[in-house]
Design brief:
alpha+beta, four-stranded antiparallel sheet, single chain
């Protein structure tokens, strides 16, 4: 993927569900302060079984999206992207 393609994918995914993302960030306290969709520049995605898991992140926040629904947000840490199971950094219903 080229950078413009990655950027377009991030914006499309986040724009479709920004209200849900905002609610997740707001519910996590300071994670929601002043964040804009444009701040999200990284994406990591994989398929397990029938579900697609996507982590979209800025320099400060990571959002886990299952299929097309944001399910949790945490402070971003680089270890998340190299983890065997990035889902372990998040809380979400299985």
């Amino acid at each position: 993927m080229t950078a413009p393609t990655v950027e377009a994918a991030i914006h499309e995914l986040m724009d479709l569900a920004w209200n849900l993302v905002y609610d997740l960030l707001d519910g996590r306290g300071p994670l929601g302060d002043g964040l804009l969709v444009e701040e999200y520049t990284g994406v990591h995605s994989w398929v397990e079984g029938l579900s697609r898991y996507t982590v979209v992140h800025s320099r400060e926040v990571a959002v886990l999206v299952v299929d097309t629904r944001p399910v949790d947000a945490v402070a971003f840490h680089h270890d998340l992207l190299g983890a065997d199971d990035p889902r372990s950094f998040f809380r979400f219903p299985v």
